[in-house]
Design brief:
Glutaredoxin; Glutathione S-transferase Yfyf (Class Pi), Chain A, domain 2; four-stranded mixed sheet; 57% helix
Length: 217
């Protein structure tokens, strides 16, 4: 059955690989699965046809036969659970990899996303200048904890897994702020993720789509 995912028609990131469909593209590339991309405009995302796939009117979605999924973490976990290469065979290691996937989304990403919102959507607010240091410190607190745990290891728990895929995807969203570079081992960790052939294919595909659509960037 053909796999179809949705992505922005005009990606706000301008093709920098930060949109959440890139995570799904990366997982599919790691698993060696062919797929199609259906591009959705911001207007279409709020219309009934798309809301039937994603009740919150966002991207990405995943369609495979009668199966429809939304939320990038759920989609990546589905791909990893059904196809080799993204989760260990050992049951305990598999559970740890899944734990890291959830940690990326639930613990590390929220303060990074808050920083993005503060800069992009709240930059003109009178209280933003006073609040920004607090927001950045929350990002640093999480990255410091993650840096201490990673140490000198290449990956979070032995071999590369879906947990690393999601964590690298999240960390890359902090790079524009410059905070990621304050933690050299995390910056190197993210760079190792970017160096994977599957990531490169996903990134280039998302970038080509953005350029073709005329996204700013």
């Amino acid at each position: 059955m053909t796999i179809t995912i949705t992505a922005f028609e005009r990606s706000p990131d301008g093709g920098k690989g930060l949109a959440r469909d890139t995570r799904v593209r990366w997982a599919l590339e790691e698993a060696g699965l062919p797929f199609k991309v259906r591009h959705v405009s911001f207007r279409a995302m709020k219309e009934p046809a798309h809301l039937a796939l994603h009740p919150f009117g966002q991207i990405p979605t995943y369609e495979e036969g009668n199966l429809v999924l939304f939320e990038s973490g759920a989609i990546v976990l589905h791909i990893a659970s059904r196809h080799a290469g993204l989760l260990p065979d050992d049951a305990d290691a598999r559970a740890r990899a899944i734990t890291w996937l959830f940690a990326a989304l639930n613990t590390v990403e929220p303060p990074i996303l808050e920083l993005s919102i503060a800069k992009v959507l709240e930059g003109d607010k009178p209280w933003n200048e006073a609040r920004m240091p607090l927001v950045k410190d929350r990002v640093r607190a999480r990255l410091a904890q993650l840096s201490a745990r990673l140490g000198a290891a290449d990956w979070l728990d032995g071999a590369f897994s879906a947990g690393d895929l999601m964590m690298v995807s999240v960390l890359l969203r902090s790079r524009p702020s410059g905070i990621l570079d304050e933690y050299p081992n995390l910056a190197a960790y993210a760079a190792r993720g970017e160096a994977r052939p599957a990531y490169k294919r996903a990134y280039e595909a998302q970038r080509r789509d953005a350029i073709a659509a005329g996204s700013p960037g």
